């Protein structure tokens, strides 16, 4: 390219010397020369040297024509063509530059997308791991819930069973004792005559069978309910005798029940003497009813210590 | 191509006759360049449209000059061809430049998407 420039400059100089003031170079030729210098110092020299060379050849013809014949039509035609070719060299150079930009953008786009894909894959992998972890937690929670449900079901079945057992025990108990629901609780009343001999507090043998049934019924109650065994006498005899007798009888019943499985801490015994008769003591039948042992199963709200 | 054109002119100059015969392939070449310019959308690009029109006009002029025996006909045809080729280049430049702008915008969009 340097050779071309040198040659061109030499031609121009030669033209200047030879032509001198004879002829002024036509506008087309002046423009072509200027355009060539600009293109040769611009993008075209680097990106479209072949096109630039073609333009130089035609420009050389224009210069030669001018040198030999002056400002002729042919000189102007060659200069015109050279101008077009120089413009084309520049245009193609700019186009090539744009093509390079496109190629670079596409390449960079592929790199960016590759990186994004890698990032997305990493995020996806992380999310999958997180989901697995959450699923494991969820499975553990589900198992825990199922276990709790099973426990609740077992407790429900146990409660139903206990209720059934209680109902059965209370039904059996109803055949040997009076059962009444009062404000102070469930009152089981056993006649004194079936439990003790007159003026005695030792349990009769026949009483034990009945108390076994009572013990079963008491054990079937809710564990948090407290029980009180109350001994009652009729009004015959003095309180000095009746009071301890009633307490001893209550204790005898209590001890028997504890010996047969009733919780020692839940049951107490008190002697009421003749203080709370069911009926007046005017006749033997009423007095017999007044001689009794009551077992009170207190409601839960009264059972709290 | 230009060499052939110059040789044709030289021959004609020597002959000095009144009839100028434009070689068929030279004319075909010029007309093919004009069609090529139209196909790449030169009519839609102002600068290219101007050179396309110059190419057509000069081709017609060259034909008339040849018919009239003017020796300059081949040079005018060469002018026409250079205008047609420039029209093609200019039209392609616009198209490729638009692609380059779009590619740059696409790349920016891809990069922006990655940071959002």
What characteristics describe this protein?
heterodimer, A: 305 residues, alpha+beta, 60s Ribosomal Protein L30, Chain: A, 2 domains, B: 116 residues, mainly alpha, Substrate Binding Domain Of Dnak, Chain:A, Domain 2, 0% strand
Describe this entry's structure for a reader:
The complex is a heterodimer of chains A (305) and B (116). Chain A folds into 2 domains: 1-159, no CATH class; 174-303, OmpA-like domain (60s Ribosomal Protein L30, Chain: A), CATH 3.30.1330.60. Helices cover 69% and strands 10% of the residues of chain A. Chain A is built from 10 helices and 5 strands; from the N terminus they run αααααββααβαβαβα. A 5-stranded mixed β-sheet of chain A has the order 1-2-5-3-4. In chain A, α2 packs antiparallel against α4, α2 crosses α5 and α7 (205-219) packs across α8 (239-259). The longest helix of chain A has 101 residues, at 73-173. The two termini of chain A are 115 Å apart. Mean pLDDT of chain A is 89; it is low at 12-21. Chain B has helices spanning 2-15, 24-39, 46-67, 73-115. Chain B is mainly α. Chain B has one domain (2-115): Substrate Binding Domain Of Dnak, Chain:A, Domain 2 (Up-down Bundle), CATH 1.20.1270. Residues 9-17 of chain B have low confidence and may be disordered. In chain B, α2 packs antiparallel against α3, α2 runs parallel beside α4 and α3 runs antiparallel to α4. Chain B has 4 helices and no strands. The A-B interface holds A 54, 57-58, 61, 73-74, 77-78, 80-81, 84-85, 87-88, 91-92, 94-95, 98-99, 101-102, 105-106, 108-109, 112-113, 115-116, 119 and B 2, 6, 51, 72, 75-76, 78-79, 82-83, 85-86, 89-90, 92-93, 96-97, 99-100, 103-104, 106-107, 110-111, 113-114.
